[in-house]
Structure formats: C-alpha cells, structure tokens
Amino acid sequence: MATNEDNLKQIISHSKEYGFVFQSSDIYDGLSAVYDYGQLGSELKNNIKSYWWKAMVQMHENIVGIDAAIFMHPETWKASGHVDAFNDPLIDNKDSKKRYRADVLIEEHVEKIRLKIQKDVDKGINKFGDAFDKEQFLATNPNVLRNQAKIDDINDKFKNAMNNDDLAAVKSLIEELGIACPISGSKEWTDVKQFNLMFSTEIGSVADSANKIYLRPETAQGIFVNYLNVQKTGRMKIPFGIAQIGKAFRNEIVARQFIFRMREFEQMEMQFFVRPGEEMKWYEYWKEQRIKWHKSLGMTDDYYRFHDHIKLAHYANAACDIEFNFPMGFKELEGIHSRTDFDLKQHEKHSGKKLQYFDPELNESYVPYVVETSIGLDRMFLATLSYAYCEEKLEDGSERVVLKLPAVLAPVKLAVMPLTKKDGLPEKAREILDSLKFDYYCQYDEKDSMGKRYRRQDAIGTPYCVTVDHQTLEDNTVTIRDRDTMKQERIAISELEKLLKAKFDLKQFLN
C-alpha cells in the first residue's frame, strides 16, 4: 500500500512526465522552491482561475475585479505592518543543520495526535457501522478525551507564547513535546528567531536605500489602496467586493512539499467591504460560500475541514482556514479572515488621504470593515491533482493511471481519434475537431493503438474521446468514450456539440 509520501512522489513524477509541472531552470539543476507550469499545467491553472473568477465576479453583481501592479510604493508595506511584523518563527536543528518553521513542527505534532483520535473513530465505524454515534464517542471515549486534552493544552501554550512574542516559550514547548528533526532524529535545537519574508529590490538606476522597494508578499494591499477608486468609478454600494488574481512573493526559508509552499506563487483573493459591526455576519456568510464552491467540484466532504486560527494576525478579529487533505495531511488551502478596518485606517494614516465611504442609507461616513477570502492557486492546483490521481486495476487484470479531474477544469476537454491513418478517416476526424475547437480545447491523436491512445488521454484527464471509424463515413456517427466509466456509446456527429455543452455547462457546477 502506497504511503502518503509515495503518493506525493507519484504526483510529482506524473506532473513532469505529462507536462503539468516542471522544476524551474531544470537544465541548470533547478531553483529550489520555484516551479514552471507546462503545457497541460498552464491549461489546468487557467481553468481553475476562470472557474474561481466566474463564481466570484460573474455570479455576484456587487463584486468586481481588478489587476493591481506587483510593485507598490514602499510606504504601503510599512502601513500594512509587513515591514515590522511579516515574520516566520524559525528554528535550526544543531545536528542536521536543517531549518524549520517552529509553528509547523508543532502543528505536525498536533496532527499526529489528531490521527490517533481518527484511528479510534475508524475502529468504531468498522465495529458498529451505521449504529456508531460519532459525536457521543468523541464526547465520552477516554482515549479520545485524553488525546483531545493534549491537543488543547499544546494549542493554548503555543497561542500564549505567540501572543506574547515569547520565542523562548515556543522553543521550550518543542523540547517539552520531544519533537525531533525529521531528517536526523536529533532533538538538539537552536533558539527560535523571527525571519522577515519579504523580497526587496531597488527601483531606478541607482542602488541605494532611498530606492528600496518590495515584491508584494500578498495581493490584498493592491485592493485596499484602490478601494475608493473602484467604489467611485464603479458606483459601488456597501456591501461590495473587489477580487484579484495575481503573483505574490515570499522568501520562504523552509519551502518544500512540491508546489504547496513556493517563493513565487499566485493568489485568488476577494476583499469584501462591509459596515462596521456587520463583519461577523459576512464572515460566516463567506465561510459557507467558499466551502460550497470547493465542494461544487465534486471532491468529497471528508477531504475538507475548517480550522480556526490559534493566533490571530495583527489585523484580524476572526480567522479560519479551509484545510484540504493533501498527500502530506490536512493543510491550509484557503483563508477566510475578518480584517476589521485595520488596513484602510493604516493607509489613511500613512498616506494622509481619507478612505471613508459615505453611506447614503445611514447618512454618515465611515471606514469600512473588510472580510477577506484568499486561496492559493498553486495549492488549489495541487489539491485538484492529488484528488484526481488514481491508479486502477481493471476487470481484465490490466491497470491504468487516470486523472479524474472535474470536467470543467480538465486541460483537454476532448480527444478526436481516427481509427486508422487512411481511408479518409483522418480528414473526417479533423473536420470534427475544427468544428469544436472554438469552444473546447481539443487534441487530435492518431498515433499507436486505440488502447494506448485511451490510456494516454486517461493519464492527462481528458473527459471524453471521440473515435472516427469507417461507419462514420457511412452514417455520420462516432463513438464517444467516457473517461471515468470507460463506457462507449454511438451518437450522431450533429448531436456531439449539444452533448458536450451539457457536460461542461457551468450551471450544473455553480448552481
């Protein structure tokens, strides 16, 4: 049975073999924690972006989108708190010389205890089936209660240490828990230190401190400094949102686990501006909306969970993550944060410009509060790929690797294949492809046996394959094959476009 680590290795290998993801600068032995998206990866990535954008902007009358610049005035990052407070607590192992995020070491230790609880729950389900009362079991089982108490105690200690900026207490907690270096097994740790994650560079022809600017570590600030421009030019009324998809950059010292944590990554964010005092109502609303969006793609409920933040960021009064069960366990996929009015008031203070909204219904001006939804596009890509990757043993004893991607996200929607390379079949196949390529990304494939061609399309997640054979020339019908069921049916070419439109219609996903 494959381990989670093996599963991640398989996904990495598959990504490279089929043109989804390559190591950046591969011919120069690569650049750590930087990746390039290949021909199919870029299609999948664009489809995820489009699906998010349509759900967030197109489906909401009161949400619009912008595209802010990566470079911003350096005062932006002083106002936002990133210059002084955008840090990770890092710790080095003295024997392996490897560096780790202290918070991640503690989170992974807690997750091991959670898995013990889940193991007990699984045993109960196997033993009692439908009669098993999970809630009662979690509330009364001595092992579960003991392990949950351990988790609560660790979280309380870590929260207190971080809230008090007590890095010595964080180190003490790591030592108390007996956390060892995953590489060497050593428990000899250095002190915990804070490390600022922003990349800096110079603008202009002279490199000096006066020209120092930063690569943005998040896309949100581009929305905040433009919020009044958008509100006035778009005649937006509160509550309203501004969405953006864009690159962000963080000098991650501990960057690993493939594209999960990178130094150059992409975010899909939406900042929702609300009346002060109504932020918690909208916070709960967006929690519900965002998990609904994730589940619309057909990934099962047990792959998701909400996780409330132990330590709130300096700008937040409520925050949680939607976590996904990646090959390396449950990890953050999307954050929902109630950011209060911190950002806008800070930009007011540092810029000297008023950023107030006049509310005609209340007949008063105020600085809006903000509820944020922020999803890592690269993490969403990895979640989609890892859920879809499947190795199947078929009835005839053969095996296949298939990517069961949601049809709406699949890079290639349809492969058109002539049975042979002669007798006018290629010409007919290309005629069909030419009629469909305006609406769908299609591939033409005539090399190798039909079995090999099907396996190739299965491996890249193509939902449907159309085969053109000699009967096609007689009655204008083709065989269409479903990726997931492998069932084939004969349909008229004239019905093909109607069938595909029904299969890929956004209404069935976003309703």
TrEMBL record:
This is Glycine--tRNA ligase. Residues 198-418 form the Aminoacyl-transfer RNA synthetases class-II family profile domain. It is found in: Cytoplasm. One of its GO terms (cellular component) is extracellular exosome. ATP binds at residues 250-252, 260-265, 332-333, 376-379. GO terms for molecular function: ATP binding; bis(5'-nucleosyl)-tetraphosphatase (asymmetrical) activity; glycine-tRNA ligase activity. Its EC number is 6.1.1.14. Keywords: Aminoacyl-tRNA synthetase, ATP-binding, Cytoplasm, Ligase, Nucleotide-binding, Protein biosynthesis. Homodimer. It catalyses: tRNA(Gly) + glycine + ATP = glycyl-tRNA(Gly) + AMP + diphosphate. Catalyzes the attachment of glycine to tRNA(Gly). Belongs to the class-II aminoacyl-tRNA synthetase family. It comes from the Bacteria. Substrate binds at residues 101, 218, 265-269, 372-376. GO terms for biological process: diadenosine tetraphosphate biosynthetic process; glycyl-tRNA aminoacylation.
